[in-house]
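re: ur question from earlier - yeah i can do the single chain one, its not a big deal. heres the input i used so u can compare w yours
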Amino acid sequence: MPELPEVETVANGVHARIAGEQITAAWFSTKPEPFKVEPVRLLEALPGRVIDRVRRVGKHIVVDLVDGNGELEAEWIVHLGMTGRLLVSAAEVPVPAHTHARLTLSSGRELRFVDARRFGRLDLRPLQSAEKFTGPGAEPLEIDAEAFAALFRGRKLPIKTALLNQSLLHGVGNIYADESLHRAGIRPTLQAGKVSRPRLRRLHAALQEVLRSAIALGGSSVSDYVDADGVRGFFQLEHRVYGRAGLPCPSCGTPVRRTVVGGRGTHSCRTCQR
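and the output i got, formated as tokens:
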């Protein structure tokens, strides 16, 4: 599943390509799974609105839609799920299989949502009086070290599981939890409430460093992920433990091991992580 850096990369790429364009027409598939709102509502709401901003909130892509006067009217919310792609394409480019949304833009290009496994979701939030979409947890790239440490105080679940809890931190997934725990030297199974404050400060710094580095390299392409142009990311080349079971730890040479923590495949070094 695309995590924070991948979703950020897609959102930034889409924004750079289509911000300021008007949606002139829309098409949606008949498959019900991707839609959290009836497609007919999307067909009524999207055409005629202008794309003001495309941004990331947690693992969601939020498209801010304004009227002709620049007033924010709605948010089109996209969750990529396991295999979802949000692509900006010329109209003449063949439409990929498993396309569930096509927005025709004033430039003649199309914004396409493609999802083979249909775990992604499309939603619409009118903003007459509602607050803007914020997601369930804290933003990992904005939270300070003290507030970060407070999230784990008294929690008995493993620190790896706590990092993946979207109600605590939204956007962190399996790849970046493993990579940040390795860089911080923390064992994934260590009880979250027992991690010392100095070690939590190291984890906070490591997590933000990993996420920013991954964004700079366009995310990690370990399965289906591509950016808004269909291009793969490069941060997988920087992975120290994730997906490297049996290979030497780059810090100490000990073979990286794969275990299961909280039902999730977990990669770590028994020497470096205590």
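The helical segments are 4-18, 39-45, 145-151, 159-164, 174-184, 197-216. not sure if urs matches, ping me
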